[in-house]
Amino acid sequence: xxxxxxxxxxxxxxxxxxxxxxxxxxxxxxxxxxxxxxxxxxxxxxxxxxxxxxxxxxxxxxxxxxxxxxxxxxxxxxxxxxxxxxxxxxxxxxxxxxxxxxxxxxxxxxxxxxxxxxxxxxxxxxxxxxxxxxxxxxxxxxxxxxxxxxxxxxxxxxxxxxxxxxxxxxxxxxxxxxxxxxxxxxxxxxxxxxxxxxxxxxxxxxxxxxxxxxxxxxxxxxxxxxxxxxxxxxxxxxxxxxxxxxxxxxxxxxxxxx
Length: 258
Known about the structure:
six-stranded mixed β-sheet; globular; Endo/exonuclease/phosphatase; hydrolase; metal-binding; endonuclease activity
């Protein structure tokens, strides 16, 4: 079973790129972030025509998350992260697909830091950590994937010394990610490539992609039940070089059958 995550940076504007990637790689489950489309403007028919069922939580102008499944039913569990009834950002959606609980997330950026946006990021991280603990306790096979907006270590960022004050790399952010992982989750990319430089995001400026000056901010966290089924993981880096593409690369894992 192949599960992918992809911050599309505008699902309608990048639809040709998304459809081409789906056709070329055929993942079984896809988590999308940054739809930047209200609920009624999600391109459901185009996704269906590509062979995928979909659930989504849209939002006008920014945010937005979706889960797609090929040849599988999607049973939606929730479309908001618990813990703050006043939070109106569409940043989390969760479903059951083929016996696996899939949490698709788009964690807040948090810049400028310090400040209100950074405080919101850390509060959101706390809510995610609390919910993640409940998911682990359920004993279900769970994957939490998406754009976490955090570089966990210096290996995950080009020229880390330039990022020390950024919300994605501040000590508080990295500690929050570490605390989450240490509940018992496996960082799938780092399990397969423990010491390799791997990036999932390249800025549009200063030829970042051409210079391989990137960040690893799109992650897969696996529960113990899925950790033992992990057989492969990779980044589709070439997609970042396509015309009118997102600034993120698709990332995927492959799980063995039970």
